[in-house]
Amino acid sequence: MVVKAGEGGAQSKRNTMNRLLAAARVEFARKGLAGARVEEIARDAGVTKQLVYHYYNSKEGLFIAVLDESSDNIMSELVNLSVEELSPPVAMRAVLNHFFDQYRLDPFLGSLALEGIRYHDTHQTPRNHFLEMVPKLIAKLDAILLRGATSGDFRANINPRLLLASASLVTTGWFTNRYSMSALAGLDTDSEQGMATWRQYSADFVLASISLGAVKNADGM
Q1: Which sign does the torsion angle of CA 127, 29, 98, 172 carry?
Q2: pTM of the complete model
Q3: Residue 108 contacts by C-beta under 8 Å, 6 or more apart in sequence?
Q4: Is 220 a domain residue?
């Protein structure tokens, strides 16, 4: 049955929007914003094309909604990770590994993230859910860094924002820049072995950059 505007109550509307977002997510990941067709999204979601425009005004509005939903899911999972009882190095590795695994386990996330990067590079975008969630994740990382500095595992005064930016590039680059990563690292970005190797290396790399022990060794102490 094709759902039309004005049909159903609040729960029905929520279910319809969830189906729309799910269908749009796949379409945008596979074809990009320019190549995606509202007609196909509506068909896959079991709604009319008019209903898509009723809820989201435009294809671009639907795309932004998809990006917001993905950002909410990614950031909420990271912020809510239970790592407070873990030692600082283990806690930081858990966050880094989870970040990597979000992309590893979702076949559409890398392509969708890359399309989102292109969009934000060329559009003046309003404040979005990703930016709203960033301070919470920074606070979580900062708490781990402070515990690590106190325990002697990490260097003091590490900027959590810079750490988050560099860690995200190292981990997600595997999924958003597959050609360069494969050519430079000599690894198959589609293989389980290649992903396992980079997952380990990327976490080791970030931890080495903040480790107090690494600085002492570099100084010959």
Answers
A1: negative
A2: 0.85
A3: 25, 26, 29, 30
A4: no
